[in-house]
Amino acid sequence: MGCDIITISADTKFVHLAWRKNEKELAAVRYPMASDPTGKVGRMFGVYDDNTGLNLRGTFVINPEGKLLNAEVNFYNLGRNIDELMRKFKANLYMTKKTNEACPSKWKDEGDKTLVNPGAKMVGKVHEALNP
Amino acid sequence: MSEPASGLKLGQNVPDFELETYDPVKDDFGKFRLQDQIAGKRWTVLFFYPADFTFV
Prior knowledge:
- The complex is a heterodimer of chains A (132) and B (56).
- With 132 residues, chain A is α+β, with helices and mostly antiparallel strands.
- Helices cover 27% and strands 23% of the residues of chain A.
- Chain B has a domain at 18-49.
- A two-stranded antiparallel sheet of chain B has the order 1-2.
- Strand 1 of chain A pairs parallel with strand 3 of chain B.
């Protein structure tokens, strides 16, 4: 789908290798596992916690021009929903092609209802736009 | 917890960065550079997590 997933933690690349080879749950993992031991990149994205030396559960979507389009950060004890990440990614791809459309909260995939040319005429009329 | 320092906002261009990686496909170490993604016209999803050998 023209997208590369990179995982990042403060562990070294050596620990990444050891974990990938030991943990059977990771047997299918094929994405590069990046090492940010100084927290340099984690700080840039606001997910590095100086008190623990760990990163919060942050997910960031960057488009092919290098622009940051989505950010989601969960605290340590809440896992992420991959379906929601996929939804956001598909919506980004769709809106790159259809620049006059916006994807509402219930949008899941191409073909679902979008808001076309959202503007002054749609103010107070979103219900009518979604339910013609 | 100290305040996470975020300089990045949505819609901003992300400054280039480089990180060392372990690549399971090649079973070798490598590098990730954001500039390479832009040069190759690729989308990127960065997935931060607390630590290896924990629940992700």
